[in-house]
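#onboarding

Welcome to the new folks! Below is a worked example of what a typical request in this channel looks like: someone posts a single protein sequence, and someone else replies with the predicted structure as tokens. Don't worry about understanding the tokens yet, we'll cover that in week two.

Example request:
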Amino acid sequence: MESNVNRKHKDSVFSALFSTPEILRELYSAIEGIDIPQNAIVDINTLSDALYMKQINDLSFTINDRVVVLVEHQSTINENVPLRLLMYIGRVYELIIDKEKLYRKKLEKIPTPEFIVLYNGKEKCPDYQELRLSAAFKDMSGLKLSVSSGLPLELVVQVYNINHGHNTDILERSENLSGYSLLMRKINEYKEYLPVDEAVTNAVKYCLEHGVLTEFLKKHGSEVVNMLFDDISIEEIADIRYKEGHTEGREARDKEIAQNLLLEGSSLEFIQKITGLDMENICALSATPNQ
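Example response:
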């Protein structure tokens, strides 16, 4: 399979799959339980870092300039996502609002923000829950400002579990989201007895054989396998680092991971991203003969 995609930044399979107005209409309609008209204008404004050629958030888009939707995909429960989304929405508004209008006396109407997380990790998670920015606020005891008088700032994130057996109504309304959920489930099943690269390859093969995400997988080919491998490797190594904590053996462990990835042919930039080692250390490891 060959890929005919020429991306200006590195992104994930999730953001690559939901990268067209048509598919975003389907996704948003499924989550909201309504039908977004085909003539509704969807403008994609996902943030990217031109310097590092990487995507910053997963998805953001406006619909008819009435709502601006930020969607994040998560395989782990991250309670800091409201704070991250607060930072993202400010940057998105900077992109879509004429700054000159901010200094006019007349009120400038802006698209209403909506924040969504789609979760498909291994931890137990209800079908639906909400994460609030206010949960991160420090104690205000003794101050004039109190919860009873109303918080001056709040941000609510809607979290939907898209694992198999959860939110089946949403998955049934979105063929692409259902397909993505199945793809990730098959990867996790194969990972029980296969290395990550083989698990990813077999999961993609399974989906192609069963008519799941066929057009997307055929169009993007081996790029999908590479993106999935990168995503899962980063996720698993981050989990290892979290469980180990800040121990004295942390640097040695990072170097061991880097050495293994070098043997697998991973790029220096990829290794730096998932280990946190500086480039000088990684280059030194690449120049060291294998023991």
